[in-house]
Amino acid sequence: MYTVAFSVEGEDLLIATTRPEYIPACVAIGVHPDDDRFNHLIGKNARLPLFDRTVPIIANDEVDQEFGTGTMMICTYGDKADVFAVARHKLPVIKLIDGKGQMTKAAGDYQGMGIEEAREAIVSDLEKAGLLKEIENLSQEVGICWRCDTPIEVVATDQWFMRTMSLTDDVVRTAKEIQWFPDWMRSRIIDWATGLDWDWVLSRQRVFATPIPVWYCKKCGKIRIAKPEELPVDPRVTTIEDTCECGGTRWDPETDVLDTWFDSSLTCAIHAGWPEREDWRNLFPASIHPSGQDIIRTWAYYLMVRHLALFGETAYDSVLINGMVLGSDGRAMSKSKGNFVATPEAFEKYGADASRMWAATGGSTGTDIPFRWADVEYGWRFMRKLWNACRFASMRLEDYEPTPEADLELLDRWILSKLEKVIKTATEEQEYCRFMNAVDATRNFVWHIFCDHYLEAAKHRLYGEASDQASAQWTLQYAVKRMLQLLAPTMPHLTEEIYSHMYAEGESDSIHLSMWPQADEALVDEEAERAGDIIIAVIRDIRREKNRQGIPLNAELEEVSIYAVDPQEATDLTLGIEDIAATTKAENVDIHEGEGGELEVEGYAGIRFSMSSRTGDI
Ligand SMILES: [Zn+2]
Ligand SMILES: [Zn+2]
Predict the structure, then answer these.
(1) Which pLDDT score is estimated for 107?
(2) Average pLDDT of span 530-534
(3) Which of 198, 309, 464, 615 is 20 to 30 A from 386 (CA-CA)?
(4) ipTM score for this prediction
(5) Which helix (H) or strand (E) holds 388?
(6) Which residues, in sequence order, are bridge partners of residue 92?
(7) What pLDDT does residue 163 have?
């Protein structure tokens, strides 16, 4: 920070500034009206150092009396505070820096210099003239370009704006009315809208973008906006034949182009068919606007202001805001940091579906998710499990003619009841865009209940006589289809492939044309679930014990004795005696009510069992 001597009626007035190169663009000196050190100067003029020019001293209650010397150099434009001060006090604008970042002729002897260069020259000249009173190191927040770190300068130019600030109350009201997934994202758009300092700048100084359809009269500067029937038009290519009010007939084109968000800000209406289709309102407002947290302040906000301005209503009834994918180190993926994984790499290794499943389950909706190969691989292993299970199912269903619902066996009622509950959970979670919960619930069911337990316990019936098969086959074709439908949004390719082999009616049929499954309350069967859970737990622990003893799972057991203290549990077990025997390959299974058995069944304190293999008791 440089303390520089200005002069007022021959006396020094010391002013501290971080930007001495802006002295040639100084348009006023601000002092706080309550500051007794300086308020007697209000209305007088101050002479600039190095430049033969005076500026008015004005009252400005935004001057920080504690900062620097307590006076403020107002110039066009050293920072944002200058922009406000100049606008509020209607001060003149001196254009000091051109589009190339060089000093204009307003800088006098410093014309043509870069900003840094001009600062050094001016500081050196101030020093020589004895006008530089103090230099102090000060760390200061400076806006920089996100791409190249160049400090950002405020430059005065003519731009096109959309008057958005006047819509802020409507934006806030609308943001509160519509649904946000997740809900806490709502405050982001409200904070953004209420914190804006100016309207939306629509014009950009670029070559490629939508042209601004405007011409200016060469003679008087009058603005001529293209008429609707003249659109689309690029004024840089097409001129107009009009005669201006002033008699002028020659027109200059607008060479600026539109901010690309100006096009994107109409997507909800365009998707609905506006303006060509008369029935566009059938699809408007959009039911959901899926987006990312990095573009709430652009896309979500601009959609809202544009549609509010044009149609007086919200662009969308709900917004889904996704988090960002981060590198596995938890930082934003970036080429320069080298912590990125290119999408094709993940696709090639584990496929698009496994990658998609990772994205859906990597974190709760709206949070950032670090990329993890292990999670993608987990999805890939799940896909293999599903594929193998479905291949088995399709072989067991090869000659199956779907019959009306057969009388269902206990374990079939057990799995269907659990499936209906998963459908209910997954549906609710999807409704609220909680994809992780929906997919986790489905995946856990398919993998760890359907594949690991149900299929194992139903195998003996599926391989058995036709009369044994009916219930299991009906259950299999019903359950697999619903599981595929639950997984279709997350694994669109694999589920389509399986569906096309097992369920498609004709070539044009697709799982993605089928309806999301509806939970069927009639299939919820609490008794079957209770009994089935016990039977499955016993099967699981007998198989576990075989494994522990190194007995192959398909090796026969001579005898399994199961003891249940609770009479109800003993009865439940009796219902599953054939499934237990067939699945554990036990020649003989007997169920006893009461104490007994060496081994406990996990999760059931009152149930124990003993087993003997062909090679002897354990
Ligand atoms: Zn840059
Ligand atoms: Zn004119």
Answers:
(1) 93
(2) 97
(3) 464
(4) 0.85
(5) helix 373-396
(6) none
(7) 96
